[in-house]
Design brief:
Helix content: 40-55%
Number of helices: 6
Order of helices and strands: HHHEEHEHEH
Radius of gyration: 25 Å
Strand content: 5-15%
Largest sheet: 2 strands, antiparallel
Number of strands: 4
């Protein structure tokens, strides 16, 4: 095979050649099956790509909440990057501090408006573009003790009004 060495490594080309040979072998031995039904992967590669690489189940403490698990991570690595969005980033400590401040403000405003404490069944609407602030907002609502309702700012105003009224 001829290829541009500036674009591909030798290992990549070898892998592509193996896939090509698997496909040719399958086409020759199974000529009644449509081309699109054939796979480039042999059994071993299929196992690796479909099953092994997707074995992402991880045990986590069932007794903790999202907030307690997050705060546990803050304690373990406060200066590690927690969020990265475009050219902005927040460490776990910064995310924790910002979400704590916002959670306090959410509770205060809710109590001021309703005269009641914010409880677990309280829905808080968040209408934010995808950003660091959106994650801060979600975490803050959870820390305040409520549940967030995401509203896409791109929705038509009628849809936003319906969600808020509902």
């Amino acid at each position: 095979m001829s290829y541009a060495t500036s674009l591909f490594s030798h290992e990549t080309i070898e892998r592509m050649a193996r896939h090509y040979l698997v496909l040719l072998e399958r086409l020759v031995t199974n000529d009644k099956i449509p081309y699109l039904s054939h796979s480039l992967l042999d059994a071993s590669n299929y196992q690796t790509m479909v099953h092994d690489w997707n074995a992402t189940d991880v045990e986590y403490p069932r007794e903790g909440t999202i907030v307690s698990l997050f705060e546990s991570q803050v304690e373990k690595s406060p200066d590690a990057t927690a969020l990265l969005y475009e050219d902005q980033q927040l460490t776990y400590r910064e995310l924790n501090e910002r979400s704590d401040r916002l959670a306090l403000e959410i509770r205060k405003r809710y109590e001021h408006r309703t005269g009641d404490s914010l409880g677990p069944d309280t829905l808080i609407a968040l209408c934010l573009e995808r950003s660091l602030e959106m994650v801060v907002g979600v975490l803050a609502v959870l820390k305040a003790g409520g549940a967030y309702v995401p509203i896409d700012p791109g929705y038509p105003q009628e849809r936003i009004d319906f969600i808020l009224e509902d």
